[in-house]
């Protein structure tokens, strides 16, 4: 057997292994990171530059420059290119909320979706058509899209995208998708979208996870439940925070300034070996599940390359030092990387 030299080699028969890349990687200012991306991954997602705020800053004009560079990069290295995201209430371009009239809002939203799908037609392999439309209890989030267009915005968005680019895989993507209430909500939502003529090809389970939650049982059951809908399952936005959530700490208030709080930011001088091992074991456990269900999983995408680039250093409070990814701040593979690579020997 040939030597396994990278994540993409290791899982080539299982699923795509993807990474979210930032602007500095896309415009090739950060060539060190770019080299690791090219070596290790066979799929890319733009972490920010395809969000409406960046790509469609004014109602009448798009800013495709960075997104086009992103696509060229993927094409050059023959990667699977994932588009993130067509409809999202957050990082929404401000012009959306200046439209009072509902009909006008719907027309503009339709144009947004169709114009983007058209521009990237045949280039973007799959889309997060709608991102984060659910509340934790499984009901629909009262976003500007729901307020202006009603529930219909969901099937419509999927229909519009499929009309323009019938070959792209269309995903619904959200976080906490392992939470039973939200899971039920997602399942009924996808069923409904399909009943109403929308084409849904996949569900994206954002993997913004922790060392001890969600449980492995919840992760596995969620993969099974979504797959039972007859759609592909992608693990998107994977990262494992090693820091406590403010809301998990007794007596903690999120409004407090935790920046210099030892309890909230304990590893500013480095990650202790014991936690490094915990992280490696956690990644091993979740990848074991992914491999067990590799027939159901289309792609596993990490939300960032190295620890220094992770959004989790600023969430939910500024100035934290988190270690959620497979590569350290110098882009060296961590124990978590080795633990995943070692798994392949068993399959
Ligand atoms: O680029 C500007 C910079 O010029 C400016 O000085 C700085 C000041 O705040 O902001 C920079 O932009 C930030 C951008 O990330 C790039 O770093 C934005 O403020 C910040 O809001 C943005 O955060 C992103 C966040 O989504 C909001 O869009 C994170 O990088 C990104 O990782 C995160 O990703 C989301 C997914 O899209 C959806 N699911 C959840 C996930 C995590 O929140």
Could you walk me through the main structural features you see in this protein, from its secondary elements to its overall organization?
The relative contact order is 0.12. The model has no long low-confidence stretch (mean pLDDT 95). β5 (169-174), α9 (180-195) and β6 (202-210) form a beta-alpha-beta unit. It contains 12 helices and 8 strands. It is an alpha/beta fold and 347 residues long. The chain has one domain (7-245, 260-346): TIM Barrel (Alpha-Beta Barrel), CATH 3.20.20. The longest helix has 20 residues, at 273-292. The two termini are 13 Å apart. It has an 8-stranded parallel β-barrel, surrounded by 5 helices. The protein is globular, with a radius of gyration of 20 Å. The structure holds ligand G3I. The site of ligand G3I has 9 residues, from loops. Residues 47-48, 51, 91, 131, 175, 206, 237, 311 line the site of ligand G3I. It catalyses: Endohydrolysis of (1->4)-beta-D-xylosidic linkages in xylans.
């Amino acid at each position: 057997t040939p030597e396994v030299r990278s994540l993409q080699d290791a899982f080539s028969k299982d699923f795509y292994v993807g990474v979210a890349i930032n602007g500095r990687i896309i415009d090739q200012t950060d060539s060190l990171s770019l080299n690791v991306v090219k070596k290790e991954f066979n799929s890319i997602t733009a972490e920010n530059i395809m969000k409406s705020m960046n790509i469609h800053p004014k109602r009448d004009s798009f800013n495709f420059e960075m997104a086009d560079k992103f696509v060229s990069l993927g094409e050059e290295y023959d990667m699977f290119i994932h588009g993130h995201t067509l409809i999202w209430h957050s990082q929404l371009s401000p012009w959306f909320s200046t439209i009072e009239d509902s009909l006008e809002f719907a027309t503009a939203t339709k144009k947004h979706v169709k114009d983007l799908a058209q521009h990237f037609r045949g280039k973007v392999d799959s889309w997060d058509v709608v991102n984060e439309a659910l509340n934790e209890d499984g009901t629909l989030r009262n976003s500007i899209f729901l307020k202006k267009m009603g529930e219909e915005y969901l099937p419509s968005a999927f229909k519009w995208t499929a009309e323009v680019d019938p070959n792209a895989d269309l995903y619904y993507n959200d976080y906490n998708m392992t939470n039973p209430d939200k899971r039920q909500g997602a399942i009924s939502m996808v069923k409904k979208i399909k009943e109403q003529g929308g084409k849904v090809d996949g569900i994206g389970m954002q993997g913004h996870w922790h060392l001890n939650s969600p449980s492995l049982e919840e992760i596995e059951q969620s993969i099974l439940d979504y797959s039972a809908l007859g759609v592909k399952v992608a693990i998107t936005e994977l990262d494992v925070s090693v820091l406590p959530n403010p809301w998990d700490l007794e007596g903690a208030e999120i409004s407090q300034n935790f920046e210099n709080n030892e309890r909230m930011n304990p590893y500013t001088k480095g990650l202790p070996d014991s936690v490094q091992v915990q992280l490696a074991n956690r990644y091993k456990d979740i990848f074991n599940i992914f491999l067990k269900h590799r027939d159901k999983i289309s792609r596993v995408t990490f939300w960032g390359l190295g620890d220094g680039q992770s959004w989790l250093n600023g969430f939910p409070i500024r100035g934290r030092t988190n270690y959620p990814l497979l590569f350290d701040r110098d882009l060296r593979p961590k124990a978590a990387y080795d633990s995943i690579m070692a798994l392949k020997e068993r399959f």
